[in-house]
TrEMBL record:
The chain crosses the membrane at residues 65-84, 104-122, 134-153, 159-180, 187-205, 217-241, 253-272, 284-301, 313-333, 339-361. It comes from the Eukaryota. SUPFAM superfamilies: Multidrug resistance efflux transporter EmrE. It is found in: Golgi apparatus membrane; Cytoplasmic vesicle membrane; Endoplasmic reticulum membrane. Homooligomer. Belongs to the TPT transporter family. SLC35D subfamily. It comes from Aspergillus aculeatus (strain ATCC 16872 / CBS 172.66 / WB 5094). This is GDP-mannose transporter.
């Protein structure tokens, strides 16, 4: 009995060892595909496949947001700068009556800019040709409104000129109602009344001459500004009509308009203006004219990019910001004493415009 007991113990130990070895083999065979090396490669593969696109997408979004911010800054700076640059150019004695040729110069810059951006290697938009005969009404309205704007800027202060441009909104709404019975929300009427009242107050008190001021708004400036608003309203309505009629975007339509408008103005300029001799024009004035063209190019490019990337609502908000900046700088840089009544008119006009845009945008949603 004593001899058999050790044998039984030995057999049990051997069976136990065999079971452990078999379990070890099974565990090794089952964990081999999930070895640390393989597991690490699987985890890395999964992270790369799942998280890298999100990271790339976020990087693209941040990059596009940065580009949009840069173009917004360019648009604001160039728009504000071109107003004061054009004011200095058109107020100069030699070019005070050269609004037609100056407008033709800007149309040429706009046409060249749009032509470059429409090329396949640039690819901002696809050009679409239309005959000049079909857009003659639009070309005429475009030329008239730009010439009136230049005349208004030459004969009025920057503050009044910029606030008068706000009247384009009610004028366009009225013209749309008269021609196409297109109405606006009733709640928008009161802000428009406030806007018009504010501009009226500024136009009256800004035209009052003072002994401390060399720059004020003349009766001619008021007439040219109001005429420019009416012409711009007609042009805006026509643009909307031609968009639908020709099935063209703003850039496609302007690409066809700008060269024709420049050609028309260059043909009539010799009959309406007397050009100064080139040698008599100071270099500083030539530099201002060149800077005006460059800024016009930047305004067009940035405006197209903002509308394409962020939509017309963002563009409208930026437009309100530009108006406030121009009015503020015009107040600071001008030697014209701004009365308390003019300040009240400025605040009324800006408040009325802001409330109007808020109501219109809410109504569109």
């Amino acid at each position: 009995m004593a001899s058999t007991a050790p044998k039984l113990d030995e057999r049990k130990n051997e069976e136990k060892n065999q079971e452990e070895s078999s379990i070890h083999e099974l565990s090794c065979s089952s964990t081999t595909p999930l070895s640390p090396d393989n597991a690490e490669s699987e985890v890395v593969y999964t992270i790369d496949d799942e998280k890298t696109p999100d990271k790339t997408h976020s990087e693209e979004q941040s990059g596009s947001s940065l580009r949009l911010l840069v173009w917004m800054i360019i648009n604001i700076v160039s728009t504000v700068a071109i107003v004061f640059t054009n004011k200095s150019v058109l107020s100069h004695a030699m070019l005070r009556n050269s609004q037609v040729s100056f407008a033709a110069y800007h149309f040429t810059i706009t046409g060249v800019t749009l032509w470059i951006t429409s090329r396949p290697w640039c690819g901002w938009f696809e050009p679409k040709h239309v005959s000049a005969y079909r857009i003659l009404h639009l070309v005429a309205a475009m030329c008239i409104q730009v010439i009136f704007q230049n005349l208004a800027l030459a004969h009025s202060s920057v503050i009044f000129h910029q606030l008068a441009r706000l009247l384009l909104t009610p004028a366009t709404a009225l013209l749309n109602y008269i021609l196409y019975q297109s109405s606006i929300p009733r709640a928008a009427f009161l802000p428009l009344i406030v806007l018009c009242t504010g501009v009226g107050v500024v136009s009256y008190y800004d035209s009052v001459p003072t002994s401390k001021s060399t720059e004020s708004t003349s009766a001619q400036g008021i007439f040219f500004a109001l005429s420019g608003v009416c012409a711009s309203a007609m042009y805006t309505v026509l643009v909307g009509r031609y968009h639908k009629k020709l099935q063209m975007s703003s850039m496609q339509l302007l690409l066809n308009q700008a060269p024709v408008s420049a050609a028309v103005l260059l043909c009539i300029a010799p009959w309406m203006e007397t050009f100064p001799t080139v040698s008599s024009v100071p270099e500083s004035l030539w530099l201002s004219i060149l800077a005006s063209g460059i800024m016009a190019c930047l305004v067009n490019l940035s405006q197209f990019y903002i509308i394409d990337a962020a939509g017309p609502v963002t563009s409208t908000v930026i437009g309100q910001l530009k108006t406030c900046i121009i009015v503020g700088l015009g107040w600071i840089l001008s030697d014209h004493v701004v009365s308390h009544q003019s300040v009240a008119g400025i605040l009324m006009a800006l408040t009325g415009m802001s409330l109007y845009m808020k109501i219109i945008l809410k109504h569109q949603k």
